[in-house]
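Following up on my earlier thread - several people asked me to post the actual chain instead of describing it. Fair enough. Here it is, all 219 residues.
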Amino acid sequence: MTLQRQNIDTLMKKGCDDMLITEVPLKSNGESARFFDDHLEFYGTSISYDEIATLATSNSITIHTVIFIPMGRSFDGMVTFKMNNGKTHNINMNAMSVFGIPIIRNPRKNEKLFPPLYDAVYSIVAKSMAQKYIDEINGGGTVEVTGLTVNSSEATFKSKKAVAFINKDNYRECQVANGYGATVATVYDKQGDTLWSSSIWSNKNVLLIPYILDAVFGG
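Reply from S.P.:
Thanks for posting it. Predicted structure:
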């Protein structure tokens, strides 16, 4: 866990109403995303965490070559919020350069700007979204998220051969990829072997999985 993410978690535990937890730059001209305890502000838009239906992140770096000679560089960075009302809001940090000259923003700058944004989205938005799933499970309900069906006793998923289980007896931890490329959640058993991994083709709400499984089956 990064120092920034530790600081974010500490601030969230204080629980002040309408508290600004952190602000991260999106562009070098001063535009930023501001994360509060219950909502997010960016590009003149305000989004309540309670109104987000699905959250997805992705980012990757591509070196473009011609006959093995580097000609350009692109950075694809995106955070997508699909709301309960069907609307979609994006934080788009895509950038491209050719022969080192920025054509669409500056990829090297955006490569540095994206990790703090990803940390804030994971530590604040995903954690807040996960709580409603946790509350439903603790209330005796069953939820479905990113290919898992979870209740207070077990999480089930379809493997190639049969239905497999995650429960308090075999669960050790869940980790997500660091945000570069497809965001994938991987669940490990107590021996350190992989129990389950989310699909790289569908990463909606994958960042919620560690919080849900830790709350239900952890410790």
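The chain is about 25% helix and 40% strand. That should answer part of your original question.
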